Task: inverse folding
């Protein structure tokens, strides 16, 4: 190829690439990008679940606390565990709600911007 | 190479884990230009968007502030209609684009395929194709592009050599070269000249060579489980591909294996960092205190006062990572999972038992352990703390009972007992009850307590093997690592030593530290002893040369040499001169006996040039001949020349070992506490000359014992310790058949004839043929003649002179006087011994009389004259 042709070829391919890049953006935002955000969200929620040790509490619900195996202790322990589990579930729900805000904002943000910039006026 | 060529090549592929690999990145001037242009445009756009983004945020903040000042509600939609807010909304779009652009870029690079151990992957019908260039690091790709441009400018086709030349600009590569003690500038020059010599053609062959190199680099990254193909993989691949480069490196004493290990070393630091970070993230979930996550545990105050919580230490990041012990840790886990709850790690001191325990503690914190060990504490019980202060009768037992109660009630404790053999025989003062080991054994079996104990093999045999505790504990052997594993372990520790002593180790230094310490420091174990040597050397180098110096293999050899008194450094010019003229040096002390001297000198040269078999003694020699001809003298000379001093000679008079029981004296017996005279002496001084005087008088059983020592270079003492004889010179002397030698010489037989007849017939009555066969040389010492005796008289007088010089007196002897002494001292049957007596009687005695009567003073000259007369030449008085 000659130099002139080469430059033409490069210019063509570069502008093509840029156009492709711009058009791919919204497409990616609501498909691949959203999946990444979702995965991340679930990871965070799972982290909170491990951090609050909810599975450990559920698994041990009938096991007495502090190695006290008599009947009274068993009952107290069970009640205590129930309270703990409820309490931890509430915290879990709050954290999850906050985490779930992230994908919602992600979906809405570009729409809001476009709405504000191009549609209202 | 132009585009079309490349397309042909990219259809070549390599298969990995059932996937096809291909190279899709284009090599051409315009592609490279295009890529760099893209990079610049991207950078400009990103910078602009960042500026816009922050401006938008500022606008928003300003707007909110104004709203709060004016007291309007945020939720009134009218307040969000301000015109200037559109900058903010543009900035939102800008942020969104930045997110898109960055994520897209990060997705472009692919992880190197992970190793999987499943066979099924290969059976898939549709083969996935992988573009390997996406897994190369930016650094590596940049170097590749530059190398290509360079080759284009030279009018050559791209060759691995171009890549290597490009790699020199990289810091990591330079580091690795320094580690290999490569003279960097020289090496670069050689590679540069090789690049110039490459042909000017642009052929397809070269292209496929490059492609092979690239896939090899990918494969190497895959093998070491890296996530990216780095410049280090490039380096290794280039060297593996190119025979010429290998030869150049070989010239610099760098083998392919050394290169591979040095590269592994560079990678290990990254792996360690990744592992450490992973550990820290996981550790955050582990409870800080004694309570488990299920809240079922109990506090254990008594146990805590006698122990240390390893999981808490690990959680806080105090425990080092465990390297190259995965096999042993898995074995421990398998035993525990299999239901036998208690193991004992058995290994020599210094091989890393504690490191294995620390590794288990780390894994427990990460909760990557079998289910029975999850959510538990790993507590190390200290026996010394347990015992100390337990003065009252029964107190010790009481403590153990309380601790056991606590452990059982808490239910979340895994016990570690270091040096567990110390429990055997422990009872509190004044009681003769069962000892602690039996109490522990009882608890461990009945209560299913998980315990990981540790001990040494000797203590295991002595205390645990026939003890109930030993039967409860399943043995896991922690071996001394082989050279490669030891080097890996040392590599993981070296960073710390380098930081502490501000020194920089070469690969050769590590290699030598491991290999030389294995050979020459027999009573300590790897990797500990190698690490200690490295520390010592770093310290020495710091003191001698100052900060930030390179510690080379020679430095290590010097330190080990200093410790062991054996020459290990490379043979210097001076020394090689000395070695080549060994015979002359020996003859300065020894007259006649050319054959014996030649044989010994040759053996010493072989040993120093490291051409000998390292699994046998340096040399085994049998010296035969009548008394007083220089057998012992030669042995002493050798000890002085090779081992540095006559003191490095272990001399055993075999006439003391004539009975069968003497074997016990030699290698020890259980009754005598285990240490034998021979084994103990060599164990303490492995580099010495072993002289067995009058070997024919030893009991035949002892000679049988020697067979193994002389052949394999090792003997085992009564305690089961193997003593290494491979750095000794073994010399046996014997007067056996002395008469035969004298008679034969008188009869005019040649030396060869005499020797043959000796070995074939005469010596058979004293030694078995297999014993004689073990000697590398049998040397027959010739009886001394009158001429030799005169020379010896000269040597002996020289010794007297030396003694007198210390007193400030000069002695000279006339030729006639020496002749007279030689005649008086000559006795064909007794060799040079009578001469010694004559000199003592005639010279020393006369001198003593003169000294005591004050006839000689300082600076006087004494002349020994014919008839034993002493003439004194007085010095001028001041």
Result:
């Amino acid at each position: 190829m000659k130099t002139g042709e080469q430059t033409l070829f490069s210019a063509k391919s570069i502008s093509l690439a840029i156009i492709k890049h711009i058009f791919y953006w919204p497409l990616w935002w609501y498909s691949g990008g959203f999946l990444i955000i979702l995965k991340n969200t679930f990871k965070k929620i799972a982290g909170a679940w491990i951090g609050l040790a909810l599975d450990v509490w559920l698994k041990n619900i009938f096991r007495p606390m502090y190695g006290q195996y008599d009947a009274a202790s068993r009952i107290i322990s069970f009640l205590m565990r129930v309270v703990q589990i409820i309490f931890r579930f509430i915290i879990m729900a709050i954290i999850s709600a906050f985490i779930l805000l992230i994908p919602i904002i992600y979906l809405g943000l570009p729409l809001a911007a476009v709405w504000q910039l191009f549609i209202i006026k | 190479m132009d585009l079309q060529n490349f397309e042909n090549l990219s259809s070549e592929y390599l298969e990995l884990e059932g996937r096809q690999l291909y190279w899709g990145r284009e090599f051409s001037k315009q592609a490279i230009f295009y890529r760099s242009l893209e990079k610049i445009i991207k950078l400009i756009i990103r910078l602009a968007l960042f500026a816009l983004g922050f401006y938008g945020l500022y606008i928003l903040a300003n707007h909110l502030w104004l709203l709060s000042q004016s007291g309007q509600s945020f939720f009134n939609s009218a307040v969000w209609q301000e015109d200037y807010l559109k900058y903010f909304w543009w900035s939102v779009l800008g942020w969104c684009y930045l997110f898109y652009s960055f994520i897209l870029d990060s997705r472009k690079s692919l992880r190197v395929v992970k190793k999987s151990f499943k066979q099924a992957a290969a059976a898939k019908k549709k083969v996935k194709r992988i573009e390997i260039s996406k897994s190369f690091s930016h650094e590596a790709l940049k170097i590749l592009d530059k190398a290509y441009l360079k080759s284009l400018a030279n009018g050559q086709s791209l060759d691995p050599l171009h890549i290597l030349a490009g790699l020199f600009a990289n810091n990591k590569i330079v580091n690795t070269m320094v580690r290999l003690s490569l003279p960097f500038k020289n090496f670069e020059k050689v590679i540069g000249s090789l690049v110039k010599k490459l042909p000017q053609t642009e052929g397809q062959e070269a292209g496929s060579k490059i492609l092979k190199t690239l896939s090899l680099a990918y494969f190497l990254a895959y093998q070491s489980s890296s996530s990216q193909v780095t410049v280090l993989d490039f380096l290794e691949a280039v060297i593996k591909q190119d025979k010429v480069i290998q030869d150049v490196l070989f010239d610099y004493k760098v083998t392919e294996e050394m290169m591979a290990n040095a590269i592994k070393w560079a990678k290990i630091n990254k792996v360690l960092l990744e592992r450490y970070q992973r550990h820290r993230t996981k550790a955050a979930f582990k409870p800080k205190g004694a309570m488990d996550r299920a809240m079922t545990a109990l506090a254990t105050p008594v146990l805590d006062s006698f122990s240390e919580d390893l999981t808490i230490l690990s959680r806080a990041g105090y425990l080092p990572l465990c390297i190259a012990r995965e096999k042993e840790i898995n074995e421990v886990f398998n035993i525990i999972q299999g239901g036998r709850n208690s193991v004992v790690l058995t290994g020599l001191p210094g091989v890393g038992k504690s490191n294995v325990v620390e590794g288990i503690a780390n894994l427990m914190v990460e909760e990557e352990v079998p289910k029975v060990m999850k959510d538990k504490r790993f507590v190390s019980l200290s026996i010394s703390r347990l015992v100390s202060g337990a003065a009252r009768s029964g107190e010790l037992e009481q403590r153990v009972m309380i601790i056991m109660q606590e452990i059982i009630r808490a239910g979340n404790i895994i016990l570690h007992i270091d040096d567990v053999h110390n429990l055997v025989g422990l009872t509190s003062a004044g009681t003769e009850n069962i000892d602690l080991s039996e109490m522990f054994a009882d608890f461990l079996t009945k209560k299913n307590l998980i315990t990981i104990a540790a001990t040494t093999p000797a203590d295991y045999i002595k205390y645990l093997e026939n003890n109930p505790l030993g039967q409860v504990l399943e043995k896991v052997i922690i071996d001394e690592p082989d050279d490669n594993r030891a080097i890996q372990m040392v590599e993981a520790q070296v960073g710390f030593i380098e930081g502490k002593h501000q020194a920089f180790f070469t690969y050769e230094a590590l290699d030598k530290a491991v290999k030389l310490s294995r050979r020459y420091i027999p009573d300590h174990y790897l990797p500990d002893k190698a690490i200690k040597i490295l520390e010592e050397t770093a310290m020495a180098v710091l003191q001698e040369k100052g900060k930030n110096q390179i510690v080379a293999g020679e430095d290590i050899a010097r330190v080990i040499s200093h410790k062991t008194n054996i020459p290990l450094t490379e043979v210097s010019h001076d020394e090689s001169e000395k070695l080549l003229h060994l015979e002359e040096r020996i003859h300065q002390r020894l007259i006649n006996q050319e054959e014996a001297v030649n044989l010994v000198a040759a053996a010493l040269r072989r040993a120093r040039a490291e051409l000998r078999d390292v699994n046998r003694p340096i040399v085994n020699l049998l010296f035969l001949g009548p008394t007083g001809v220089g057998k012992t003298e030669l042995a002493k000379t050798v000890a002085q020349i090779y081992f540095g001093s006559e003191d490095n000679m272990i001399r055993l008079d075999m006439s003391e070992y004539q009975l069968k029981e003497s074997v016990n004296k030699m290698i020890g017996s259980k009754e005598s506490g285990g240490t034998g005279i021979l084994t103990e002496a060599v164990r303490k001084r492995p580099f010495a000359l072993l002289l067995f005087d009058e070997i024919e008088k030893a009991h035949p059983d002892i000679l049988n014992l020697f067979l193994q020592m002389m052949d394999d270079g090792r003997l085992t003492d009564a305690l089961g310790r193997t003593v290494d004889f491979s750095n000794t010179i073994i010399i046996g002397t014997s007067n056996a058949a002395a008469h035969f030698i004298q008679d034969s010489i008188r009869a005019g037989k040649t030396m060869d004839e005499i020797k043959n007849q000796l070995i074939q017939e005469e010596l058979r009555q004293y030694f078995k043929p297999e014993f004689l066969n073990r000697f590398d040389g049998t040397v027959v010492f010739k009886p001394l003649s009158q001429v030799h005796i005169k020379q010896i008289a000269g040597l002996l007088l020289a010794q007297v002179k030396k003694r007198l010089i210390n007193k400030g007196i000069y002695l000279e002897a006339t030729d006639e006087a020496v002749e007279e002494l030689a005649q008086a001292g000559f006795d064909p049957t007794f060799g040079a011994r009578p001469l010694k007596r004559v000199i003592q009687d005639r010279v020393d005695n006369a001198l003593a009389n003169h000294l005591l009567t004050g006839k000689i003073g300082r600076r006087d000259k004494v002349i020994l004259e014919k008839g034993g007369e002493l003439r004194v030449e007085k010095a001028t008085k001041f």
